[in-house]
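Figure 6 in text form: structure in, sequence out.
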């Protein structure tokens, strides 16, 4: 997070002004303090309307994160694992970075491979053994 921006990928940077952070009371650890302090960090990011994402990356992210989005295309994340608001804010922003980085990354193309010569020979040898075994069974039945 350099200069208030969130780097998702080498060519994708999201300005912090596009990320909306709110705070709420957390039910996590903290004892009586939990009733007084809003330490839970709630993050909203408009994935569908963000001008920072290139269109192909946005389409991949929308498809992969669809179950996590609201009807308006807003991604909601929250963190209440820490007792301090600042640590929860850092944690939820890091979760957004990791989630978006995985969602916008293009899938690797599968390189078709052929079986090795040894694998083909093993398969044929096994096939021969099975065939012989079945032939032997049928000969015994005929006797």
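Output sequence:
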């Amino acid at each position: 997070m350099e200069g208030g921006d969130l780097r998702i990928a080498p060519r994708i940077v999201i300005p912090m002004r596009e990320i909306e952070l709110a705070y709420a009371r957390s039910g996590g650890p903290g004892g009586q303090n939990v009733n007084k302090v809003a330490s839970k960090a709630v993050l909203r990011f408009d994935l569908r309307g963000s001008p920072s994402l290139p269109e192909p990356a946005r389409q991949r992210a929308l498809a992969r994160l669809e179950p996590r989005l609201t009807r308006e295309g807003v991604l909601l994340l929250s963190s209440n694992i820490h007792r301090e608001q600042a640590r929860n804010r850092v944690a939820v922003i890091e979760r957004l970075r990791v989630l978006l980085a995985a969602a916008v990354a293009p899938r690797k193309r599968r390189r078709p491979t052929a079986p090795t010569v040894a694998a083909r020979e093993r398969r044929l040898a096994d096939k021969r053994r099975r065939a012989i075994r079945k032939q032997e069974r049928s000969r015994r039945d005929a006797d």
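Caption detail: The CA atoms of residues 42 and 78 lie 4 Å apart.
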